[in-house]
Every structure is written in C-alpha cells, then in structure tokens.
Amino acid sequence: MRRQRKQYFPEEKVAILRRHLIEKVPVSRICDEYDLKPTVYYRWQKQFFEQGALVFQRATKSEVSRLKRQVAALVPPSQTRELATRLPCFQTLDLAHHLPGASREGQPTNKCT
C-alpha cells in the first residue's frame, strides 16, 4: 500500500524555502528532514520566484471595481452597515452604489489606508 504524501500549506512551503535561501541550510538536508524529493523543492522555489512579483502589484481601478461588485453580490444589503461598523476597513469598499436599488446616502465614507 502506498504511503500518503504530506500536503504542505503555503506558509510551510515558504518556511522550508527560507531555510535554504536565508539560513543557508543545504537542500539535501532540507529534503531529508521533510521527506521531499529535490525536484519538489526546486519546483516550489521556481513558483515562489515566478509569483513573487504579485506581492508588490497594486490593483487597478477596474479590478477594484470588479471586486467591489463581487463583494456587494455576496453581502446582503442588511449586513453592509453592520460590517462597516464592526470592520472599519470594510468602509473603504463603499458598497452602497454597487447594491441594486440602494442609495449612497447614509453610508460610511471613512477610508482606511
């Protein structure tokens, strides 16, 4: 019977990569400790560097508008005000004009940075 492979969370993968990249632990030792094949380690490293730029990208206005519409579709209008009072950064979404039939009047306008 085959042994089931361990599934690593993204945070665990970064911690494993960090051990080699920053702490200079040899890849062979890391692979032995975590029972990884070197090809798996190097695939994670490749993904990490290829997708690392995403961390520093800023969303465009059209992306932000699209995401606001998606959130507005998921959050019932009755809960919009409640969320805005409990979660100050929810106010930045300013969902009022995205909700069908809702007015902007009385919606929080405080912006989080």
Task: Give the distance, in angstroms, between the N- and C-terminal Cα atoms.
Answer: 54 Å
Main sheet record: none
Rounded to the nearest angstrom, the radius of gyration is 22 Å
Instruction: List segments where confidence is low: pLDDT < 50 over at least 5 consecutive residues.
Output: 103-113
Helix content: 40-55%
Principal-axes shape call = elongated
Strand content: under 5%
- What is the helix tally? 5
Specify the structural class: mainly alpha
Number of strands: 0
- N-to-C order of helices and strands: HHHHH
Mean pLDDT: 77
Number of domains: 2
Put the structure in a nutshell.
The chain is an all-alpha fold.
Summary keywords:
113 residues; mainly alpha; 2 domains; 5 helices; elongated; disordered C terminus
Describe this structure in words.
By secondary structure, the protein is mainly alpha-helical. It has two domains: 10-56; 58-113, no CATH class. The protein has five helices and no strands. The protein has helices at 10-21, 27-34, 38-51, 61-74, 77-86.
Write the layout of secondary structure elements.
Blueprint: H1 10-21, H2 27-34, H3 38-51, H4 61-74, H5 77-86
